[in-house]
């Protein structure tokens, strides 16, 4: 079963990254760089895994992205097998976001979660170092091949908007999203 899906080292490496990483989307370029694979080899493996149904593919502005397909019927079996031999993955994106200042909460949405039509890809709450943010965005946009839409809010603004079911905040939380940091969960002011 597993052998039918993965018949090369590059296929195995790509799938391992998706199983170990947070459930976010990756561009072909990011997979290529993170796994030190030639771009075309990474593209071939991603396409093959998407064709098998293990990954889902989507596009934004002619760039292709891939995310794990949690509805794939054999995924639990693959995850079980992988956990026996799989390694841990520190997502460099998460680490970089944590270093952007005094961040109280950070959420990935939109492009990072397979919803390219949403208005924001990254929401930061707290005090952000704008120089570090600029460097982060340059790096992330290069890997993703797209402009990253982001928003910064103060702690008070975020809590108020979250507690009043603000549409902007609701759009993030009603769709799949990833919580990078959230020290404000359940906090009311």
Account of the protein in words:
It is a single chain. By secondary structure, the protein is an alpha+beta fold. It has two domains: 88 residues, Orthogonal Bundle (Arc Repressor Mutant, subunit A), CATH 1.10.10.10; 90 residues, no CATH class. The chain contains nine helices and seven strands. It has a four-stranded mixed β-sheet with strand order 6-5-4-7. A hairpin with a 2-residue loop joins strand 2 and strand 3. Helix 2 crosses helix 4 and helix 3 packs across helix 4. The longest helix is centred in the C-terminal third of the chain and has 15 residues. It is globular. The model has no long low-confidence stretch (mean pLDDT 90).
Summarize this entry quickly.
The chain has 189 residues and is an alpha+beta fold. It contains 9 helices and 7 strands; from the N terminus they run ααβααββααββαβααβ. It has 2 domains: 88 residues, Arc Repressor Mutant, subunit A; 90 residues, no CATH class.
Please name the defining characteristics of this protein:
single chain, 189 residues, alpha+beta, Arc Repressor Mutant, subunit A, 2 domains, four-stranded mixed beta sheet, three-stranded antiparallel beta sheet, 9 helices, 7 strands
């Amino acid at each position: 079963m597993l052998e039918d899906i993965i018949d090369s080292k590059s296929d195995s490496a790509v799938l391992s990254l998706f199983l170990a990483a947070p459930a976010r989307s990756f561009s072909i370029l990011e997979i290529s760089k993170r796994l030190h694979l030639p771009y075309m080899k990474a593209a071939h493996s991603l396409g093959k895994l998407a064709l098998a149904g293990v990954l889902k593919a989507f596009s934004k502005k002619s760039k292709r992205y891939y995310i794990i397909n949690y509805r794939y019927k054999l995924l639990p079996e693959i995850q079980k097998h992988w956990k026996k031999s799989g390694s841990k993955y520190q997502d460099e994106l998460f680490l970089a976001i944590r270093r952007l200042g005094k961040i109280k909460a950070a959420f990935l949405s939109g492009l990072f979660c397979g919803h390219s039509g949403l208005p924001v890809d990254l929401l930061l709450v707290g005090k952000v170092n704008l120089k570090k943010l600029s460097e982060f965005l340059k790096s992330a946009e290069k890997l993703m091949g797209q402009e990253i839409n982001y928003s910064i809010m103060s702690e008070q603004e975020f809590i108020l908007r979250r507690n009043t079911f603000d549409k902007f905040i609701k759009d993030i939380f009603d769709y799949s999203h990833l919580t990078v940091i959230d020290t404000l969960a359940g906090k009311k002011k």
